[in-house]
Fold this sequence. Notes:
Blueprint: E1 2-7, H1 15-27, E2 32-40, E3 54-60, H2 94-106, E4 111-114, H3 117-126, E5 132-137, H4 146-155, E6 161-164, H5 167-174, E7 182-185, E8 204-208, H6 217-230, E9 235-239, H7 247-258, E10 265-269, H8 275-280, E11 283-286, H9 295-302, E12 307-310, E13 326-329, H10 334-345, H11 348-361, H12 367-384, H13 387-390, H14 393-422
Parallel strand pairs: 1-2, 1-4, 2-3, 4-5, 5-6, 6-7, 8-9, 8-11, 9-10, 11-12, 12-13
Amino acid sequence: MHMVFLIHNAYGIGGTIRATYNLASVLAEQHDVEIASVFRHRDVPVMDVPAKVRLTHLVDLRAASADFEGDDPRHAEPAGIFPRADGRHRQYSRLTDSRIGSYLSRSEADVIVGTRPGLNTHIARQARAVGIRVGQEHLTFSGHGFRLRHEIRHRYQLLDAITTVSESDARSYRQLHLPGVRVEAIPNSVPRVSGEPADGSGKVIVAAGRLIPLKRYEILIKAFAEVAEAHPDWHLRIFGEGDTTGNERESLTSLIGELDLSRKVHLMGKVDPLEPEWIKGSIAASASDRESFGMTIVEAMRCGLPVVSTDCPVGPREIIEDGVDGYLVPTGHVGGMAAALLELVGDDRLRRRMGEAALKNSARFDPSLIAERHQDLYQDLLRRGPGRRSVGFRRKAGFQARTRAIDTAHAVRSMTRAVASKLGAP
């Protein structure tokens, strides 16, 4: 099979990029695999591109490129295909509409896979009829805003399949009643640690993820204050960067100072690869209010660390077996987080036993097993035939009518905003 993964920017770093690289690497052992990155902003990707995978880009944002700084006037025109409700909309334009559309219309791939709602919309509307169209969802349906959920209900009807990273989220998409669209829950994959896993002796608790309010690092830091008081030889290391304003980092730094934990809690910044840092620790922690999956949870478990995580509505509860390879605690609850950490910190045998269980149980996320599930899905869809050939005239006509209505509504809103802006209206 010839497979294409359409991704926002494969030259950066993030969970979706890592998951795509992991999957593409295994599939490329048997298939022709290409990653099409809408944007390119640097000469070399941050993460190593799998050896047998081709990486192409559609819009070059490097200073020396013809696309840089809006040399093409279409840069200044808002995107018409990429939905406004997708949080990345401001980065897209008429230029990206054209480049993505041109690429999809030329592609002879058997399977085209999108990796976020805006790109799934492009695939639904612009991919050639002969290919299988799959929309990956790396975020939760409930986490999307009302407008984006509305668009998904209509735009996704000409996809052949939707894959989610949790069964809980798959149920949400099945409830949309998208006729003929297959919905499968296939988690992200994470390779096993390349060297020896953690042995439980390091007196370090490790957390990783973006420094944003949603991650609730203040809960973890306050919980660790109780750990540090009882076990002053332990440390907490938090890996990750925040947004460009740096407000969250400043807030966390201030909290660390207030709790007199400057020598115990360390904001380590972005590190890649993170695997060597997991291994230095003995416990992993996540205090998030919401997760779509929990990539760092699996990464930690694959390195042999038990994980203390908040019991988010989606994600961690499908990864951690409470009391066996980690603990699930109530969201936003400092006391619950502190109690679970104290139990593991204070019992070496328990910590090592749960770390061994984490290493064993997380094997189900091995890239070879996850890639096999994707491959089976694609092959089954190919046997059925592309959705556009099987939907029938009426459904196709209905979809096109709804698409025109949504596009018209967007155009009217855009015109209204433009007129209001010229008139100086708020």
